[in-house]
Amino acid sequence: MGKKSRSKKRSQRPSPRARPPRRLSSRRLPALAAAGLILLLIAGTWAWVRSRRDEQQDAVAATVQAVQAQIAAQTASAPTSEPTLPPNIGPVTGCVHRPAFVSRLNLGDRILIGTNLKGYTGLTLSAQQSDGRVAVYQHPTWDDAGHLAAYALDKDGNIYVAPAPFVSLENNPLEEQNNIYKIDTNTGVMSLFIKLPWAQPPNTTNPYGVMGLTYDCDTHSLYASSVAGSTYDEEMGRIFQIDLAAVSIVSQLEGIDAFGLGVYRGVLGKRLYFGSARNSSIRSVALDETGALNAEQRLEFRLLQAPGGQDERAKKIQFPKRDEMLIKAIQFNYTLRAASDFQQHNYTYRYVPAKDVWEFVQVRLHSGVE
Amino acid sequence: MTAFKRLLLPILILSLLLLAGCGKKETPAPVAPMAPMEPSATQTAPVIIAIPTLSPVNHITPLAEELDEKQQLAQNVAMNQPLLQKLTTDPKRGQPLRAEVFGVYPARESDITSESEACKAVTCYRVDIYNWATNTTYVVMVDIDHQQVVDVDAMPETSPELPPHLVREAMDIAVNAPEVEEALGFKPDPDAPTMAGVKTTLNNSACELSHHLCVAPTFELEDKALWAIVDLTDKKLVAVRWTEYGDYSGGLPTEETVERQDIFEEYCRQSHELEKDGWRMDFILTASDGLRLSDVAFQGKPVLRSVKLVDYHVSYSTKDQFGYSDAIGCPMFSSAAVVAMSPPDIGPITNDTGQEVGFFINQDFVHPLWPQPCNYRYNQRYEFYKDGRFRVMAANLGRGCGNDAVYRFLYRIDPVAPDGNGQTFAQWDGNEWQVWETEQWFKEEPDTPVTSEGYLYRITNQDDSGYYIEPNRGQFGDSSRGDYAFTYVVKHHPDEGDADMLTLGVCCNLDYRQGPEVFINSESIIDEDLVIWYVPVIENDDRPGHEYCWADKVVENGMYVTKVWPCWSGPMFVPINKPSF
To answer: Rounded to the nearest 5°, which phi and psi values hold at B398?
Structure first.
């Protein structure tokens, strides 16, 4: 059967793939084998060279892929790792709205609110124009309270702003430093919003009142810190929760000199973070569902203990990303600020949900007017 | 079968195996991110590295530690980088600044930024270079594969991790400082085994005022720690401070926090009594009126109830109504913008022959960033002489916001009669003394007549004793160009300045409206308790060779030093019945 089959195959027209082996004569075999071996060696060498070249190219490709993967991995673990955060974690200022009156000013889209623009007293709006010039707008009422510092916007675009002396008390009477003013979103007019009560009135040894302001969309609350009346020996500052709808103080903490404020919702609930006006510590207190302040403080960290950190005070606490805290810190000793540009360090911390803590990322010097 | 035939099969198999590599290769599956490899860890064969020689123009000091070849290569590439040479050279004068390599490390993943992303594909080293003159760290990322600088990141007001030789130097300075020995009660030796109860660590600290490189060797005892703040730029101890162990609620000790707290505790919260050369007085640093002297008496007789400097007004002539009212005072809890960062300095005054003729009290007020633009430095000085003369002085030491500044210093001088009765004020009109009958002011000009001795005013007691007032016209040997001051004389009212005063007047009026005019309301001032306000008017000058009320930075030995051209002001008070000594 086998033979028959074989012979049948032989009778078939040979196909290119099934070429029958030629019977080799024993005399010609060594020469043919040598030639074949040479051919095989040449082909093998060519194949090996090609293979190596491909391997190298593949290795480069693999390296590029690895680098890309690394970049992707780093990007994923960088401060933009928002997808890994549990839901509802993050800042609470998402509702704030730009003031309605701004649309009538034709300043452009990127408008900066400032309270220390050189040559101006009070609040200003500025925007860079297409020709490079900076257009500045100031409503006539915005310098009525003298030099201003902290401000916060609410969901309707109203601006709340507090006075703070600059260089001298010439434009900032001591008795007005615990006031908060409101710039109406529709009219742009600034008027007195609320006078905060002080433990003791400001005086020449501490000319400051309101230091920080921040807004919470969830409860439509404004938080304000004040150091009015504090002395070297006694910390008499206060933190207030102000119900903006009722224009009333609904909760407050005593005996805390706080500077910058910021509300953040962590895995265990919302907390008000604040920078001490007396040292470089960042502390926090829990807020209940109404936004009321819990008296129990938690020390988060000290700026001075960060690598490259300074003995500075947190002037502003912001949350530019869902898991990122940006602290703008300056020197502060309860003296008046000089006329020069100040030195500010910007500290970045990242929220670690698993531990409900903030870990240091970096600190950068920022010179000039904020 | 021949031997060749026996070899044929293995040869064919081998050839087939070789041919197997000729097929199309599959694209490799994505690989997991690879951790960066330690460049030397996988190196099996020795590699000869050609290390570039240092450029002859290099002025950066290399690291004073032993380096391997790759570190050496990275360091030299960094130091040869023209940008680094430029960054460590004074841009105005081209003089090299003191700069030194502090560290050379294989770059870690955390060192790589978006600017140095190329380091993810090549071997990079990080070279830390410190600029001593500007207190700036340059982080230089060097690609040693291609011997090129990938990125330079300048970090002002920061210092890198110290190299071992500077750690040792800081420890030595602290251990050998008498202040440390005095605080501890024994001479420390961190290396000695007998110091079992004392642990020495090196903490970070800062010299915010001098902008120098400072660290704090810390001697940790059982329940407290002594911080010795060492200035490595000037190689000296600048402060010591005890802290409760682990309690830094008041802030970690730094040069500035220690200085501020010490001055506040010592000179702002308590007054000091001084008796010298027949004079006695109390002095205290105020919240906004500078260094105030009170109850000043000479040879037991009252001379001044108080004297102080209420404000410095500065306006800039080219910018209408642009300027500031600067108050001077305590470094914490004050309404001063320019504050005392050093204690009052008390020292002798000598004449041309070196003879001691009196003493001075000088108080320096400075903004931490001085002499950068829009930063100010002021001095208050009082001079008391053995012959009964005294001079009330103040100066600006630059540099302010421009070269067109007009300074006005608001002195408040409250004289008192020895007998407790009233006093009378008079002005020389060129021929005789004219009594001022009611509260008023006068502006001195260069042609205003003065007596042959240079006296313009006179304040007399009822027994005709008292003082002549000799205005400063540049005759006092302090390079002053004269005061040409506004002088206001008013009746004393306690609520018109006995206590610390808030800002008085506005910054930028150039006429008589400097603030004290608000106390003038035609009250009689004959035989009354008087207060004199003296307000010099001084213009600054930045012309080379003519600098006045000015400061500038110059390079000396690779470091920036500040050159100052002060503008001193203030009148001399000369006793009418000058006793002879």
So the answer is: 75, -175
